[in-house]
Amino acid sequence: MPWQLEAWRQLNARRAALPHALLIQGRPGLGKTHLARAFAQSVLCERPREAYAACGACAACGWFEQGNHPDYRQLQPEALDEGARDESASGEGSAASRQIRIDQVRELQPFLRIGTHRGGLRIALIRPAEAMNVATANALLKSLEEPPEGTLLLLVSSDPQRLLPTVRSRCQAVTVAPPDAASAAAWLRTQGIADPEGAASFAANAPLAALEQAGFAEARRTLTDLLAEPDLDPVRGAEKLLGQPVNEVVIWFQKWIYDLLRMRWGALPRYHPGASTRLARLAGRLDPIDLTRVARKVAEARGLAQHPLNPKLLLEDLLIQYRDLAGGRDV
Prior knowledge:
By secondary structure, this protein is α/β, with parallel strands linked by helices. It is about 50% helix and about 10% strand.
């Protein structure tokens, strides 16, 4: 993808002396896993094309694209596995884990020790690397400290600060930077997004995040219209939002509060540039201390929003906090 070209150049510059571990990092929505997989396939490709791109036609590429290359493994939480998601959604079995489990890393060890099938490298891709808890990360450390010969570990992370320092220090980092606003909007326009500038702003110029959020445009508009109402009814508002992913609604709420804080201190909104007039009108009435308190409350709600016991009550509570921002006066 256009914004990945510099990171792709940095990865290819290491081919002459590949490290045993690479950390591909950057904010969500930049296609880091796509880039890591493309690099892994190009390393395993038996007839790479110009700029090291995989040929897509050799036996190795065929196996890779079918998901059964003998020298490649991908570790990820069960929640990211399509089969596990389908089973969980159907009510069969327990909820899929959002962490990379320690037994997944242990099962990787025999793969790293055996010889390669095609005489090249063994590659393991771990994503998102921050989904490893302390025990899982420690289980991986031995492979990072004493990597078997011919091994390449690719760690993909949207939040590298959550990784153990001992893990980060044993990887060479390659950062995927977001495009500027104009480039992000231009790419989104090619994808048929109706308001590419607004979509890019809301996703902080992360094009794939903007593309994913495009399906929620109407729901986001419902929330911002509610938050701009002078006589907000939290119960009715929560009912309007039910049916949407609660964790997404909380993130949208958090971005609205963030822009209110920016406007309160004289800056332009980051996520809602098209709503600057409404934001300015609201921000002028709010006490910054109260606004910061609600921002903290919304941040706390993000920890509960993945599996809320009662989504309606969670949303009602946030809307009540927001309604009462100005000390009981309408906002």
